[in-house]
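User: My instructor asked us to take a sequence, write out its structure as C-alpha cells, and then describe one feature of it. I'm not sure where to start. Here is the sequence I was given:
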Amino acid sequence: MFSGIIEAVGTVQAIETVPAGRRLWIQAPFVEEIAVGNSIAHDGVCLSVIAIKHRFYCVEVVAETLQRTTLGQLELQSPINLERSLPVNGRLEGHIVQGHVDTTTEVVDILPLGGDSFYFVFRLPPEWSHLVVEKGAIAINGTSLTVASVEADTFRIAIIPWTYRHTNFAYLRKGNRVNVEFDILAKYLWKWAQERRIT
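Assistant: Let's start with the prediction itself. The C-alpha cells for your sequence are:
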C-alpha cells in the first residue's frame, strides 16, 4: 500500500526487452536503502525490485501492465514518480493508494495560476465518471491529489508549487497521458450501492 506522497523523481537508465515484457533500470536517490523484493510505485504502478546494481535498481513490467498504463511509453531518461511502500507504522499523509492503475487519461489543458501553481485539466472517461467527485481523492501518476472541480467530460486538479517541483508534473504537457487510480473507498461504495440497487 502507498500514500500517494512522492518520495523522488527517478529516471529510466536502461530498457531491456524480455519475453514477459520489459525490464526497466531506474536511478533513484534511495537505492542504497532498498532490497530485492521491495515494492515501489512507478508513476502509480506497484512493481517489485528484482535486481540492484550500483546506483540503479531493476523492475520487470509484464505485457498487460505495459498496455494498461503509461509505462509502455517510457524512454531513456524519462522522469518517473517513485514511492516506496508505506511502512505499518507510517503516517498516511495522502490517501490509500494501492498501486493498481485503473486507466490512463489525457492532459487536456494546463492553466497557470502564478508562480509554480497550475490547474491541470484531464479528460474524464465516461465509464469512470461516477468515481470522480469534487474535493474527492484521486491518484495521478501515483500522486495523491484532490479534485478541484468536475465538468461534463473533464476534471480539474490544482497543483501547488511543492507538488509541481517534486513530481514529474513539471514535465507534463498537453496531450500527454497519465496513470489514474481512483479512490478505493469510492470503488467499494459504488459496488455496494449497485449490488443493492441504490442510486
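For the description part of your assignment, you could build on this observation: The chain has two domains: 8-84, 103-195. Try explaining in your own words what that tells you about the chain.
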